[in-house]
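User: Hi! I'm working on a homework problem where we have to compare a predicted structure to a textbook description. Could you give me the structure for the chain below?
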Amino acid sequence: MNLGFNKQIVLVAAILIVAIVGTTVYRNIAGQPTASLPVLSLASPEDNLNEVTIPGGIYLIGHESGPRDVRPTRQIELAPFEIEQTEVTNAMFAKFVEATGYITDAERRGESLIFDIPTQQFSQRRGANWKNPTGPGSSIVGKEDHPVVQVSWYDAQAYATWAEKSLPTEFQWEAAARGKRLEQNYPWPKSRNNRSPELANLWEGTFPIRDLAADGYSGTSPVKNYPPSENGLFDLAGNVAEWTACWYAADSYDRIATDNPTGPSTGEKRVTRGGSWLSSDQTGTSEAMVWYRSKLAPEMSNNFTGFRCVRKR
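Assistant: Happy to help. Predicted structure tokens:
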């Protein structure tokens, strides 16, 4: 028996095991190949994601004239935190996938939800994923600075973990968007509180019949394309809706703690905030308002929802 040869075999096997484990840490399903990327990440994509410190203190959440699930208005106290200036871009998500071999939920399913502008309809589209946001024939090449879409809550959470950050609670998100102003409906100063196309990427026109694209875009737009909020944050209204860490409950505001609330411990859907390029205010209320709460099943992905991350200060 050749003991030296057997030792070599054992050593090679151990190396292979370590390599396999290391490349599957962020994969959804073991054994799937690493995703090929049709887009190169930027040389320094972190430059798009500078963080803004939101000071600790007392903040207002909710709106007494809003839907039942944003009432009653509450005062909460939050510890200081840092939040990314922009939504996570295609370039940043590409860097994550390159580093980890991550396979998104939409890629595993082979389809995802889209809103199709030409047909004015929502539908499940085969082949829609973060690299092909509306299915075959679409691409993110040339859109590296647009927010990533077709990511589920689980995909966003995986990215945040890799980046050593977290998704914001919906309360952190609202505090960052509203600031200390009590009557804020949008992230911009109250003097400009009525919507206008130069302030955000929102649906301009009658939804879903026609988007006038008066803001320059039908679909997503580059981050930092519109003026920042008073806190120096971009696209808190429109462009893409943003996943938060919180489970949704219609009566959350009746039950939350006043000190660093995190919301319900379980649920069926996760809260999204900020509205998207599909958001309209034809009813007098818009998903893009700072206090508005939307919700999606955490496994869902679509071409109008993305995310940004936070970290403890």
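For your comparison, note the following. Residues 165 and 214 are 35 Å apart (CA to CA). The first strand starts at residue 51 and ends at 54. Good luck with the assignment!
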